[in-house]
Structure formats: C-alpha cells, structure tokens
Write a structure and sequence with these properties.
single chain, Arginase, Chain A, 8-stranded parallel sheet, two-stranded antiparallel sheet, 28% helix
C-alpha cells in the first residue's frame, strides 16, 4: 500500500525525519519513536480548525528541516540520538467520529506493538481516547497512567447529544477500563467548566486534578512531584497528553477553547522535559492547535517545541541510563566543552594543516585591524570636511593601502 501521507497539504515529515508506512512493518522496525498525525476536529464544541494542527506542528520552525535538533540544555539531539520516523497522517474524516477514532486507535496500537513510542499530533482532544487506549491495549489495561495538561478536565458525559467529543475522552478512557481513575493526573485546570456533578464523578473515580489556584499556591514543581509518585505506582508506563490550552492564551492563542490564567510556555516546556527525563513515558499526544486562530504561528511553534522537548529528554534519559550519568540542570551551557583550536583572524583551516588567508589586504605582513584601529571606527580630526573632491586625481581603480 502506498503511504497515505498528509490528509491536508503536502506530505512533509516532522522537521525532515525519515518517513515510514504503517502498512509496511519493515519501514519502522527498530524505531524508538513514530510520529502520527491525527487531523481531526469533529469533536470540537466551539472553534474548529485543529484538523490543520498536524501540518502546522510538523513544519513551524525557523531552522532547516534537516532531521536534526541538538538541544542546548540537554546536550542531546532527539531526532538523531533516537530513531524517529514519521508515518504521516491517519485518515480521519471529521464528519464521522465513530469511524475516525477506531482508525487512530489501530494505528497507535501498531506503533506500540512494534516497541516504539507513538507521538500523536492532533487534532482535537477527542483523539486522546484512541491514543491512550491504543497503548494500553499493548501494555495492559490499568497498567498505564495518564498525566494530562489541560485547562479543562475533559470528563464530560453526554455533550450535544453525543458520547464522543473533545470534552469527554478522559471519562471514556476510565469507563472503558483502559486507564484507572486513581492513576489519572491532571495539571492546569481552571475556569468555569466542568459543572459540580462532573467534579463529583471525578472525585468518585479518585482522580487527582491540580487546579491552577493550587498550582500557584504550592508551586508547579511540588505538584508534579506528587503527581509522579501516583503515576508510577502499580503502573508500567505513563501516557503524556498535552492540550495546548493549558497555557495562557497570551502564550497559545491558536486553540478552540482558550481560558485565561494558564501556564506560561516556559512552565509547560520545563514540565514536559522533567516528565520525559524522570518517568517511563510510553506515549504522547499534543492536541488542540488550531492554526486558523493562531497569531504569527505562536501556538504552532510552542507545540513543535513541546514535541522536541519530549524527544530530547527521552534521548537524555536513555543516555544517562546507558552511561550511568545524570543530567545536571544547573550545568552552565559551555561547561566541559572543548574549544576549537584558535586560528588567526581571517584564516580558515586548509588541507595538511596549512591555512588560507581570507583577509582583504594583499599585504600578508599587514596586521588586521590596521594599526590605529579599524577604519570604520576611527576618525581623523585633522581631516578637512570641506575638501573639494574634484581635486583628487587618484585613479579609483587603483588598490589603496
């Protein structure tokens, strides 16, 4: 079967990583990570447009799409140190949610059974049900915990007459038995939804939800530490679901249901990094990026960096486990780096250890900058600015010292 590619727009991969085809297992054999696009917004309750999210997340980056991104902080290249492939989009018609979601679940399950981490680019948050369930089908129902960043709990029951939508996937996951309510951690909730009866249901499932008032009062890192303890108890892996609206609309305006008062972009990236450094992450989705409502690609760029931060941290975690090291966040950027041999100014290395001068002057004995300073930054106070240029008989084509 020919690779499906992109449902909307050209068939590009995430920042130029190699492509694979889920119908050809040999193309993703040995992969550490397989990226999937879920171009679906049939579950939105307000502003649509997330069907264009996968394309925007893949391509929004000012650097070359060359399949390489060395992390300054983590000293890893998540796209090189890991074998990362992009399987393109799953065909998901937004007008038929009951066909679209099972198609995505089957694709995610294929990736998980191959031993790779599925990273799903949404799409609205209804895709979290097939994403997490697809992984749990492989690792075991009840064996995967969820850390869920969102402004909203997404635990509604019947919305607009439907069991399926972007406000209900977390309830459906718990009801299905794929994930346990008491291993379900939510960070960043705020605002005025869901209603009290839904909160009562959540309490009955023993969910742990960190509303922003608690996050601000206790501190984000303390809340994450508590969440990590719960997430790793009696579970073999953690699914990370990031709804971009967990961030304040000033940091992520391009989303369907913006809610003021959220995390900053920096807080989200730091949290994702810490999760992927410290926890056994077995699946990731990044959802609710709606390019039609974005401004200057702010939201798409943040979502792109969420993916990169996760991959860089997973690569760092694996290196530390392999080499017996531990990443130090307080390490200065340049510490321990070996400087390149110093070369004379204006020279470039040449074959056999020789150097080739690139200085503008033809006098190889002349120093640069010339004695007296760089001509662009010196001024001769004796120069008469009223000199008549017409009296200068110097040939302009003659080389000047």
């Amino acid at each position: 079967m020919t690779r499906y590619g992109a449902q909307f727009g050209p068939d590009i991969t995430f920042l130029g990583v190699p492509a694979c085809d889920l119908d050809e297992p040999e193309t993703y054999a040995g992969a550490d990570v397989v990226i999937l696009g879920a171009p679906f917004d049939g579950g939105t309750s307000h502003r649509p447009g997330t069907r264009f999210g996968p394309q925007a997340i893949r391509m929004t980056d000012y650097l070359p799409h060359d399949g390489s991104r060395p992390s300054l902080a983590l000293r890893t290249d998540g796209l090189v140190d890991l074998k990362v492939l992009d399987a393109g989009d799953v065909e998901m018609y937004s007008g038929d949610i009951e066909v679209a979601l099972p198609a995505l679940e089957a694709a995610v399950e294929k990736v998980a059974r191959a031993g790779a981490i599925p990273v799903v680019l949404g799409g609205d948050h209804s895709i979290a049900f097939p994403d997490a369930k697809g992984v749990a089908n492989v690792l075991g129902h009840g064996r995967v915990s969820m850390i869920h960043f969102d402004a909203h709990a997404d635990t509604g029951d019947i919305e607009f007459g439907s069991l399926w939508g972007h406000g209900q996937p977390m309830r459906r996951l718990i009801e299905s038995g794929a994930l346990r309510g008491d291993r379900f951690l939510q960070v960043g909730l705020r605002g005025y939804w869901p209603p009290p009866e839904t909160l009562d249901w959540m309490a009955g499932q023993r969910m742990r939800s960190f509303e922003m008032t608690e996050v601000v009062h206790r501190g984000l890192q303390e809340c994450l530490t508590e969440a990590f303890t719960i997430a790793t108890d009696e579970c073999d892996g953690v699914f990370l679901s990031v709804d971009i609206d967990v961030c304040d609309p000033g940091h992520a305006p391009g989303t369907g249901t913006p809610e003021p008062g959220g995390l900053s972009a920096r807080e989200l990236l730091d949290s994702v990094r810490r999760i992927c450094l410290e926890l056994p992450v077995v699946g990731i989705d990044v959802v609710e990026v709606s390019p039609p409502y974005d401004h200057a690609d702010i939201t798409a760029a943040l979502a792109n960096r969420v993916v990169l931060e996760a991959l860089s941290a997973i690569a760092r975690k694996r290196r530390d486990e392999r080499e017996g090291t531990r990443w130090d966040p307080a390490q200065p950027l340049l510490a321990g780096r070996v400087p390149e041999p110093t070369q004379p100014f204006g020279s470039t290395p040449h074959a056999h250890g020789h150097h080739h001068s690139t200085a503008l002057s033809h006098d190889h004995n002349e120093t640069w900058p010339p004695r007296g300073g760089h001509p662009a930054y010196t001024h001769d106070d004796t120069t008469d600015d009223t000199t008549d240029d017409t009296t200068d008989d110097t040939d302009d084509t003659e080389e000047k010292p």
